[in-house]
Amino acid sequence: MKQCLNVFGLLLLVGGLFMFTGCDDDDPVIDGGGGTVSAGDGMYLTLSGENPSSTAILVAEQVEAEDFQAQDRDGFTAGYMWLEAGDYQLVQVTDQEITATIGGSLEVVDDGNSDCGFVNYMVVSTVADGDAFTVANSGLYKVTNDQQTNEMTLYMIDSPNLIGSATENGWGADTPLTGSVTDEGGSWSTEGAILRSGEWKVRFNCRWQINRRIDPNGSLNDVANGYQLFTNFGGTPNSLVVGGANIQQTEDGEYTITVDWDPRDGWSLTTERTGDAPVITFNPNDFQMAVIGDATAGGWDSDQNLFYKGIVEDAHTWLGVITLADAGEWKFRANDAWDFNLGGDLAALGNGGDNIATLGAGSYYVNLSTPDEGETWSAEVNPASWGLIGAGGPTGSWDDDQDMVADGFVDGVTTYSYTGSFVGGDFKFRANDGWDHNIGGDVSFLTLDGDNISIAAGDYTVTLEFNGETYSATIQ
């Protein structure tokens, strides 16, 4: 006899849809098997003691590779699903029979790796025939299962957000979407969003990925080193791809952007152009701001770049940490050229203004901003430095930093260091005791807002270097 199951199309990283053929009554068909479970072959996350639901299937998905690319991983599956609070197990269905049950112990991980604040996720160490684990809070989750490391992750999605050079906030800050979701689906949207020529993506809870590598600083392409799962979508608005390439924006305009989730049809994105974008009088992406001068590490021949954070307190803002000498002068300039350079009074900088006298030997946190699209500029420059923060760092806390020492500069490279004990676990570098400017990821090529760095407990000398373009660190 023929049995029907209401299964759904789930977005895969490879950009396809996973679908079954429909019955005459629009329900898909499952043929054969003769078992007692009305579900197709596959892995399902199921409330303990209940039959699997088609809306909780896990299917193959790719993970992150080097250079923000994607790669296959044997035994790695994922799904987006609404979970009610309760006890869960993972079940394997073959020929309409449950042929395996997987459970395990659950722990909550707080890795601090979100620009919207710390967002926890759960990890289940899986074992065959293991006990059910408890999901405490109902909600929409991304659920993954990795057979190579015998673990599952469960990541609650509060909201999707937009980020990218095509948005008004650039790559430095998310454009939030508002909405809600239930077990029947939901949507998030924003009206009046300005998109310009450039690139953008959708990401969940202001984070790019979850790092489950054994050595967080090792190669992403080493499959034995674990994996890094995506928490973002790219591709095109008509074909979202998990971890896919940046969405290309070619037409400037004012848009209503809506992200929908349906338990059967998965994710979709619509962009409705509702008007023209304001005439550009100032585009922050045209200004790679930097400091230069004989008081800086690079002298008058090499710039020390600042990072465009986006709009902070209604002003376009660039941030950075610089080291100044005890003698000399410096100023700001854009794009490694003198066409646009700022000097004079820090509170009222002017194009072509006088060189700025050094503030004394030491490390400084720079906040350069323009509240009126380039009409006026000002900068705050305060003594500060890089700090080490994290449960695995010297303070053992995500709330308190351990300041690093500014060691000056040689041959255009500024150096900061710390020697002492580490508790062991995850940590990051951040500037000025705040999260606006933080770096992590691969210690040989640290990135802004990068992943946490993992370290074993012990005594170390950590050295952070900035060559004017990129950050790197050594840990001995």
Structural notes for this entry:
The chain has 476 residues and is mainly beta. The chain contains no helices and 47 strands. An 8-stranded antiparallel barrel has the order 5-6-9-14-15-12-11-10. Strands 16, 17, 20, 23, 24 and 25 form a 6-stranded antiparallel beta sheet that branches. Strands 28, 29, 32, 33, 34 and 35 form a 6-stranded antiparallel beta sheet that branches. The chain starts with a strand and ends with a strand.
Topology readout:
Elements: E1 3-4, E2 10-11, E3 17-18, E4 29-30, E5 42-47, E6 57-60, E7 63-64, E8 70-71, E9 76-83, E10 86-94, E11 97-109, E12 121-128, E13 133-135, E14 139-146, E15 151-156, E16 160-163, E17 175-176, E18 178-182, E19 185-195, E20 198-204, E21 209-213, E22 226-230, E23 232-236, E24 239-242, E25 247-249, E26 253-262, E27 266-275, E28 289-293, E29 299-305, E30 307-312, E31 315-324, E32 329-334, E33 341-345, E34 348-351, E35 356-357, E36 362-370, E37 378-383, E38 386-390, E39 397-403, E40 405-410, E41 413-422, E42 425-431, E43 438-440, E44 447-448, E45 453-455, E46 458-466, E47 471-475
Antiparallel strand pairs: 1-4, 2-3, 5-6, 5-10, 6-9, 7-8, 9-14, 10-11, 10-13, 11-12, 12-15, 14-15, 16-17, 16-20, 18-19, 19-26, 20-23, 20-25, 21-22, 23-24, 26-27, 28-29, 28-32, 30-31, 31-36, 32-33, 32-35, 33-34, 36-37, 38-39, 38-42, 40-41, 41-46, 42-43, 42-45, 43-44, 46-47
Strand order of the largest sheet: 5-6-9-14-15-12-11-10
Q: What is the helix tally?
A: 0
Low-confidence stretches: 1-33
Task: Tell me the count of domains.
Answer: 4
Mean pLDDT: 89
The level of helicity is under 10%
Main structural class: mainly beta
How much of the polypeptide forms β-strand, as a percent range?
over 45%
Largest sheet: 8 strands, antiparallel, barrel
First-last Cα distance: 67 Å
Tell me the number of strands.
47
Shape: globular
Radius of gyration (Å): 25 Å
